[in-house]
Amino acid sequence: MATTSLPPLLFPSADVAGRRELAKLKRAGAIRAIGPRLYTSVPETKVETTVRQSWSTIVSTLFPKALLSHRTALEFKPNSNDEVFLTSKTNREVSYPGLRFKFVRGPAPLNDDPKFLSLHHSSRPRAFLENLSTTRPSSRSKILSAAEIEKRLEQILHVEGETELNRVRDRAREIALEFGWKLEMSRLDKVIGGLLGTRHGGVVSPIGQARAAREPFDAPCLERLQLLFGELRTRPIAEIKNVFPSHDHFKNKAFFEAYFSNYIEGTTFEIEEAEEIVFGRRIPENRPQDAHDIVGTYAIVSSPSEMKRTPRTVDELFEIIRARHRTMLEQRPEAEPGVFKTRPNRAGDTAFVHPEYVVGTLRKGFELYVDLPAGIRRAIFAMFLIADVHPFVDGNGRLARVMMNSELVSSDHSTIIVPNVYREDYLLTLWSFTRRNRATPIIDMLLRAQSFSNLDFAKYPPVLAEIKNRNWFKEPDEARIVR
């Protein structure tokens, strides 16, 4: 057997020929023992990583009669201490480089403990009971925290419904009776009752308490909002004040804001058509809804009093975004103007916040929003809050940009326009943040946009010619923006 073809990990063979081959490789120095009944062919520097990555193969090959249990039965990976927990007939520990198998004396697998490779793992009801057991401080690494247990139970309630959560509780009660786990069952019953609102107390995590208060929130979205908040609070940002106070500047810039904001969303007109729609009040017979989208957006962003209105309370936030959404999409009943979505929405493979979590997530986001200083920081945060939650069936992108510029108008800062040529920069940084939790690119992108949007729009024909020369009307694959 050539050493280059050896697998990274080798196990003792059950037959004589296999044992002889293993002994031959060991004498030749091609493999070496790294723990009980386990050999490796990889260099010393790669052993720990190889062992950790192969934990499931090791446990299923060497300990097929054990039960994968406690936190490992819910996480299916070693914990942060490189520990894997199993239930068997004895208490013991088996160690390998980068991995420890910790055996806990306990009951044998039940008929409904599912298969995991060649062994079994605790069913969800059993695993929750195991993770709610009383342990010494030195043994707490085998169980999940109370907050993590509540998060997992809340996800069952959210995704699979109350019926499934009650099924988990009912089966857990049967298991607890059989094993004598009365205290564990009492704890589980208290947590589930708290999540369902049938018992007071019982939940300690923000997720659990929000569910109990009937305002659950989207944890991944809140994590992104916290990342954005942290960078906006700590990063030095040069603010760009509005130095063009004329009424014509405000009105003309609002027109281009409405035009380009709708263009991003696919409501596309030639600029001359848009001028006729907004300034000439001519609604084309063949595209009345598209025209009203631009008119509705312009009605908001061209009103100084409306754009200076920013929320002081979360209830004001709800009222403002509902009212603005209603104005923008009043001619599209299918978009349910002013009504929070009641069915999930997505863009490509990106699923936005579930309808059940919209109010709670907006409320959590608002708690961060009010702790940011007025101006560009609040503007960026408000934009992403609406864009990431996506609280309505449609029109969320336009609304997000309206909320952003409202923050800038109210603090007398220069507003931001995202022209056609910059569309991909805008959308890709949003995607990057949502999928990769990277806040820096979206801040950089919007600061660049604010910089190149800081023009004098007071005289319409000259500024139209200027932004054409700067490639604002080009498609992203045709040109780059000229600053």
Question: How is this structure best described in words?
Answer:
It is a single chain. The protein is α+β, with helices and mostly antiparallel strands. It has three domains: 3-122, no CATH class; 146-212, no CATH class; 219-469, Fido-like domain (Fic-like fold). It is 51% helix and 8% strand. The protein is built from 21 helices and eleven strands. The chain has helices at 16-27, 47-53, 55-62, 72-75, 124-131, 146-160, 162-179, 182-196, 206-212, 219-234, 247-264, 271-278, 288-301, 304-307, 314-328, 358-369, 376-389, 396-410, 423-436, 440-452, 460-469, and strands at residues 9-10, 32-35, 38-40, 67-68, 83-88, 92-96, 99-105, 115-116, 119-121, 346-347, 350-351. The strands form three sheets. Strands 6-7-5-4-9-8 form a six-stranded mixed β-sheet. It has a three-stranded antiparallel β-sheet with strand order 1-3-2. A hairpin with a 2-residue loop joins strand 8 (115-116) and strand 9. The mean pLDDT is 93.
